[in-house]
Amino acid sequence: xxxxxxxxxxFPADARILGLDIGSISVDMVLLDGLGTPLYSRYxxxxxxxDKVLCAELEALERTHAGIAAAVTGTGADRVARxxxxxxxxxxxxxxxxxxxxxxxxRSVIDIGGQxxxxxxxxxxxxxxxxxxxxxxxxxxxxxxTGSFLDQQATRLGLDIETEFGEAALRSRAPARIAGRCSxxxxxxxxxxxxxxxxxxxxxxxxxxxxxxSFKANxxxxxxxxxxxxxVGGVAANAGVVKALRSVLHLEEDGLFVPEDFALSxxxxxxxxxxxGQGEAVPYKGLAAFREGLRQxxxxxxxxxxxxxxxxxxxxxxxSDGGPKLSAGFMPPLxxxxxxxxxxxxxxxxxGRPEARIPEGGSPSSAPRVPAASPLAADDxxxxxxxxxxxxxxxxxxxGIDIGSISTNIVxxxxxxxxxxxxYLMTASRPIEAVRTGFRDILERYGELxxxxxxxxxxxxxxxxxxxAGADVVVNEITAHATASAFICPEVxxxxxIGGQxxxxxxxxxxxxxxxxxxxxxxxxTGSFLEEQAEKLGISIKRDFARLALAAEHxxxxxxxxxxxxxxxxxxxxxxxxxxxxxxGGLAYSIATNYLHRVVEKRPVGDHILFQGGVAFNTxxxxxxxxxxxxxxxxxxHNEVMGAIGCCLIARRKMLETPGFxxxxxxFGVLEKGYRQESFQCNLCANxxxxxxxxxxxxxxxxxxxxxxxxxxxxxxxxxxLRDLFAERxxxxxxxxxxxxxxxxxxxxxxxxxxxxxxxxxxxQAFFSELGFSLLLSPSTNAEIVRRGVxxxxxxxxxxxxxxxxxxxxxxxxxxxxxxxxxxIPSLRETFPTAEAHPYANHCSxxxxxxxxxxxxxxxxxxxxxxxxxALHFRxxxxxxxxxxxxxxxxxxxxxxxxxxRACDEAYAAQARFREARNVLGREALDALGPDGKAVVLVxxxxxxxxxxxxxxxxxxxxxxxxxxxxxxxxxxxxxxxxGEAWRNMTLAMGQRTLAAADIIRRDARLNAIYxxxxxxxxxxMYPRFFGREMGEKPFLLLxxxxxxxxxxxxxxxxAFLDAVANFDAAREIAPRRxxxxxxxxxxxxxxxxxxxxxxxxVWAAALRAHGINAKLLPPPDERSLEWGPPLPRRxxxxxxxxxxxxxxxxxxxxxxGPGEGRVLHARFVRELPLRPFQHAPADRL
Length: 1182
What we know:
Structural class: alpha/beta
Distance between the termini: 66 Å
Largest sheet: 6 strands, mixed
Helix content: 25-40%
Number of helices: 35
């Protein structure tokens, strides 16, 4: 590529070369003359309307310049080039051209834009010939490492992205640790940090470092950094990001530079590419032709052929009940029913309602008092709604506070349960300041007239604010919302609650919580996501969104997956010129669909539904819910502050039920005394906890964020006297074998505490000790181990696998330092079956191949480390295990087969002792409960439930709530023959054991279950559903944990679960919901359809036909599969297997069959088919 002034001979000096970069965030424009000299440049954010902005900019340009030749790059390049008459230039090539001419000293370019990012390596093209492309990589669809990610977080924090954000980052002395791989997890980390009082500047700096780490891990990867590096794109304006990139990439000041006009590099590159003769000059049609092309564009609704497919959300009415039709990417127009609208709300969805009365039994008072004027400015964006009634005399009131991730809600309620005042304030990552704003207004308005009798607090920041305000009741959000809902509407049976970052579903019976669930990490079904999208579209969430969405003629299908993928869909529709109203309508559908599919799932939706939370003000979302469910949904009065109302009611009840009650309220002026927030890292142990310290004048210092009691005083409600069965089980694990004197005589072997260690340590300790080796263990999982693992894992994996990498990294250092001579990482292929009915007892693939994964990630053997990795199949019997152990011993220089056999026998004996000791401990725990005691059984993989470093010490959390907690492997899981027979095709040992545990828990009225799972685990994407079927109607709590999980969310779910099961009648006999076996008649006219799960399925279809079964293979998955799949049960990371359409002769949706139609082989069984030896054909079992 020749890029010098002399190379522009193809154009006259007075030529006008227009370069355009149509991005997801902005329209960038430069105009060059024939010598490459800039004449004009513009960078304009388009807020979701790139065509409108481009027309305005071209109109201004064409008034002063003529004879233009144009080149276009960016995500919208092809369409604009066709309509405008321009040369379309690839984005990477444009950046190479810009670097070659404008900053030729660069040897690589980092381009971080609004929606994507790139790393481009350059090299000299030859003497005087500029630069050429050497290599490049681009980001995935996820926007976590882009400007869009920072824009979203700046909005959440209430900071201007172009000035305040970067300045705040530079002020930080201790950047917070925030997830960088996913923007959703980053939000979760932010919420956790803000609710423990972390200074905003530390959060902002943490976000900058998160972006830098994400870019390094996901874009740069293993590529070398060629210096110097030019940083371009809009994000280069952020000084905090520049500093973070230098830190994360280990670059000096001159190693990374920001060139002039960095935000316009793409536009410059497009123009220079054309000017240098690299692109074909296309006759420029101009603005008039562009506008005409937009007018004549094929209507959006005919771009894709319509194929109506019914989409009933689980638990709601389907197509036969008049549900909506999804027609190849478009949804029906939105129209809310008049009866469902919030009182006083127009179709624009503005908040604000005059009524205040909440009488027992129900509806608002018909004659409310007139609200007093608020001194808070009407245009103050820190407060979204307020209601303040006058008090004429000193009045006894109850104070309720709900501190959420987006909003902080405060309510005053009098003795007659009438709302005196309510505040809906923006948290903006400053929960203390938000509460102070509300308290200050109450103090100025009412003074001594508001006599607080009791205080209740809820929300993710309830402990922090509860400590500062002197709360009498600190309650979880589920209970608070349910209490308020049942009070306002006694007949309510279902609550849809959508807040800023969390969404909740609650099922009530007789005013009591019977079931509930909350969203996981994803925020695609919450208010913050909707607000961010409105910001991108350039519309007001309060004034414009609902109005536009309700006016949409053809709401587009934006999907209901991860927020970043929906975000990408929105960008795609913007670049196609889809009207903003249709996008807004599609987003309203996305919120509702995501909530129904990912939160409600298959749970029942009743007939008396209350929709509450801030999002309930949006009448477009309300209309989408009614469309999708086919039911009328009611928005109750004060829907945005229901959590705070529930706190008032609960605090009032506590006062009435407690003799001699005296409130601990510290007063509305407590935060006016002045407070200071600090953060520091505790380095007294390997956890290196990030501690937040809150100093309030006249108040003891408050500390948050620690994993021990060094700084924090743990809140306990009666855990004293409970046995710590997890600690006792750990002692049994470590003492099942006592090493002999000869242990260590032959050397030391390093054994990381990873995965199967938590079950098989006695076996390996005994075996290697008997051979004369001692074992060096890695430390218990701590923050440093987790950090090493997360940064060291070579590909996406579940959290336990990341932690395993951290232990391997620690052990690698130990071996290289001479502390051990080898590293033991066993590959356990199969374990012991739980019942004779189970033909298999496999471990998951990560457990089987973890030696290879860590060896590749850390180059263990390449570093000279001897890696011991026996592949053991315990299910296949002792002789197979012995043969593998003989090979292992021989590799260590032990050749005596008799010695190896004795060591193997001792290993089996130690493992058996450990198992029996566990069962004895479990029987003791159950006996100690007595007939009326209660306990929670923690169910899951051993490396999940027995590693406090990975599960946030969940056993301690539960014990602090006063509940006895029992590990599931203390139960006798090996004597459940009926479970084994019912789930015969359960091939993984983990699944067998969890189902056996479910059978025991379901039968015992004293026991309830908490299932501990992991994001990103394939098995955990399915097994909790099987567990739920074995549990029957008995409720259980599913907790999904990873490195981004915050204790506040876990505590909320546990507290709500304990409240819910207290209302469950466990004394009655509960039947499991097992798969009903149906004998298949090979001579009948039924067809057995096999999903196209893998290429090998055709072989299985042929094998079944050879056995006399009329088996047919469905076509490969296509777009219709995705249209059918979303309503079906699934978990994160898993798409449902489903037949495609009736044209293929497959069953109707939901498994119904028409005449002559067939049966689909169960997905759980199909999943195993391609993996099993052919001789295990299932024909005899069908």
